[in-house]
Amino acid sequence: MSLTPSRKHSIATLSGLLLLSAAAPAFAQPAPSFSDLPSGHAAFEAVEYLKTQGVISGYADGTFKPNAKVNRAEAVKILIAPLVNAQQLGQLAHTPYEDVAADAWYRPYVEAARQSFGIIDGPPQTTVFHGERPVLKVEFIKMLLLANKADVGAYGEIKLPLSVDVTNTEEWFYPYIRYAVSSSITMISADGTLSPGRELTRSDVALFLHRFLMYREGRRTQALLSEAETEIHNILDSLEKNDITQAEQASARALIAARGAHASKPTEAVTQGAVKTTEAFRALVRAYRAGVSGDLDTVIALASEAWNLAAKAKELDPTLASISDQVQQTAKNMADSARALKAAP
Q1: Alpha helices in 169-268, H assignment, sequence order
Q2: Does pTM surpass 0.90?
Q3: Domain count, the chain
Q4: 93 occurs within a structural domain
Q5: Domain boundaries, position 237
Q6: Is 115 among the domain residues?
Q7: 260 with 237: CB under 8 angstroms?
Q8: What are the per-10-residue average pLDDT scores of the chain (345 residues)?
């Protein structure tokens, strides 16, 4: 039984549909502030914005050093400095960390992070801070979200593998990565990874922080819709290759991105429709998995669910009619094939 959706037709009808109705405002491009960070650099906008906010700065020679690694002490200061004042820092004289000297420049920021914001562990969990060690992606994202009181429990009902390197939903960092995907802090790479253990550079830190701040201001909704659309393409590519595991991961990311867009702009028809569209694709992927396993009744039930979700998406946002029709046709074909196999002698 062929359960694979028609990728060619789906992509043709999907491209460009998940767009916000209001055009994004145009801003004049500022002149580069740093000699090694030209306007074409991926982190240019983030760095320039954070510089104007006094969050980050460059070096005396006029460079930013975007590829330099950020250590844990630097990461804590970047996150904590905008949230506290000099008086508050001055009251944080004592530290329980054995490897943080009393005169260490970062001591008050570390103690603010531990005492006031609870974003790093102290005794009894640990008595060392490792300030010189490069900060890892999951560490920085956790600290960023907790420092800014993000609801990391959001979408807690979604416990699905997100990539080839984020498969265990019980890992301590899973809720933080899930929220990071839902807020467009991080996206899947070309090789299908989210790289939770990657050591971050200065440009990485600037990008993650800027994306989070823009999301909080409701300015990352289109990025999330575009990401959901990209993941639908990834679903179709994976199913064409009979790679159900990759399709399942892409369907989880598509759903989380759409949910994040909807949380940002809940009254927009396109975000409401995007959620139903990604739920429909998730149902199609689950139906495909059931078909591979020979569970024909589940195929029929999930195909019906996908058909109904697509109908709801079209109702919420008529501009999604083309892709919704394609989902419904695919769902019908899958259900018909399953019924035919059930009826066969």
Answers
A1: 174-182, 202-216, 221-240, 244-264
A2: yes
A3: 1
A4: no
A5: 7-19+26-70+134-343
A6: no
A7: no
A8: 45 54 55 95 97 95 98 98 93 93 95 96 96 98 97 96 98 98 96 97 98 96 96 95 96 98 97 98 97 96 98 97 95 97 90
